[in-house]
Amino acid sequence: MISDMKHIMNTDGSPLIIAGPCSAESRTQVLTTAGALHRAGVRIFRAGVWKPRTRPGGFEGYGELALPWLAEVKERFGMLTATEVGTPRHAELALRAGIDVVWIGARTTACPFVTQEIAEALRGTDIPVFVKNPASADLDLWIGAVERFARCGLSRLGAILRGFKTFIRPDDTCPPYRNTPFWEVADRFRAELPELPMLCDPSHIGGARCHIAPLSREALSRGYDGLIIETHCNPAEAMTDAAQQLTPEALARLMESIAVPV
Ligand code: PEP
Ligand code: MN
Question: Has residue 154 been placed in a domain?
């Protein structure tokens, strides 16, 4: 499989950093966070516009309404913008709004019908697509989702390890992480599709701020091509995933501490 992500990766070979809030919550939150990330040297801004909630009732994202906020990030700061698409309609709206990079969420990767439809909606474009691992440790399902995009002519493909849901009996001691990394599953993915950049999402693996730096270091020591890290201008008030989001200042410190001399 060919993958040509050169134009979004760092030209000096240093790890790619994608950062931004779990969810786009308001124009101010988006622009404040993006401005601070831009100053920290981040080139790609992430924000969830459509939020796939495991159970209904929580904040499901502002959807279309939030897309102009991302367009403003691009215009003001010259950053590339990234969001999750979970249906063909999301894909069409994201393309129309000028989103530069999309990712396929763990819940979507698990459904071949939906990934196929999204791949068809993106056919004819060269938008970069990062495919997150499905919540279960099913390597073929993960690779299969990538193949659906490749077969629709998309050639800018990458993957993200966001960890795997593991069943814990109530009397077991709590695992340290929200999702188990199972690095060896991602290693098998990397061995099968070596051309694809592999990013690590320490935010959804760790589930808590204290785990982000050690997980990021672990990923980079394993030769990962980059990190996608949830960052919010006021994490305590975040509408989703409050416990795992860093402030832009904490992210800047992390970036300094992991900077690899090139
Ligand atoms: C996200 O990145 O905001 C997200 C919902 O991720 P995942 O699909 O890994 O749960
Ligand atoms: Mn999140």
Answer: yes
